[in-house]
Specification:
alpha/beta; Urease, subunit C, domain 1; 13 helices; 18 strands
Amino acid sequence: MNILLKSVTISDPSSTHFNSVKDVFIKNGKIAGIEKKLNLKGEQYRVIEGKGKSISQGWVDLKSDFCDPGNEHRETIESGLKVSAYGGYTHVCLVPSTNPFVDGKTAIEYALRKAEGALTQLHPIGSITKSGKGQELSEMFDMHLSGATLFSDDLKELSTGMLGRALLYNKNTKGTVISFPQNYSLSNKTMVNEGLASIKTGLKGNPSLSEEVEIQKNISILKYTQGSLHFTGVSTKKGVELIKTAKKSGQKVTASVNLMNLLFTEKEVFNFDSNFKLAPPLRTKKDQEALIKGLIEGTIDAIDSDHRPYDEDKKDVDFFSASSGCIQLQTLYAALNTFHPTKEASFIKALSINSRLISQIKESPIEVGNQIDATLYDPSKEWIFDKHINHSKSFNSPFLNQKLKGKVCAVFMEKKALEF
């Protein structure tokens, strides 16, 4: 695989060529040359025109559900990895809430075997408790030996004692515990944000307090254990403030926000569109602004797709009966670029660098001598996401048949490349 990218903008903040327009030569899976204009006499290669396009380190998603095993009619590891590549991802971390739960090394190895040969690399997340039931710790050490670096019970709440034991246990493996900060004694069976959304729709409201109480509690446990904790699905202004304070005090804490909470507010549920039924729910404009500011300032480290495929009988129903979530991997960058085009630098850093640090995936800066692990994208390209372009097995997307601006052009992983 020899490829010359001509006149491409290098958008990798870790590169010494950051923000410059250069020719980039990829030879046998490695970056063999970066110059203003490369002279490649005697070399055989394919040319990709890079004018107007940018290249960064390959993107990493920290939270996707490929429904395999258990619900392969919604997505499989094979289809999910294809969607990921088309979305610009070279690495994807899978939530453990499959059927059965990923709570032992056999489940980790099953996922890795099914992902063999794909361009996008799979990183299964191990569960914290057996079967995700919250009663006893899973085989975290064995899963770590099989390749797991992240541990989560996905959307389930952990008891104080269980979180503490998980944080202490993972100090030996250097793994990171993931918390979805929802206190279900406050938010059980809620569907929308408590406030204008619950008043307008008449549906049970999820209070911001549910997230804030859980973040405060978990940070206290983190201080006691001196472990490593990642908050996923942060959605409130107060939540951002609590995490910022914890970081300033020196706690080993990171945080990510779901894509939809950056793009939309609670107003989207007024028409009962089930694609906007999410966990956590869409919040207020002030919450959305705090999340964006937190991402730019570095309090929020990463952006999660929270890719959740569902078939029609789970989404094409009334809002009350619908499952929470939507497909996002293929459209995440385009949606970010369409809604917030001036904040691209912060988004690319979150997708390509910060998410690597959290998941312990090796960095691969755009520098001569490094193996290629990169995403090529065009911020100005307009396209329509329709059922023919969608590569997921499911169609539950708020962007279906919508025009988006910003498109992935190619992904490169060592000796593999896909150009779209």
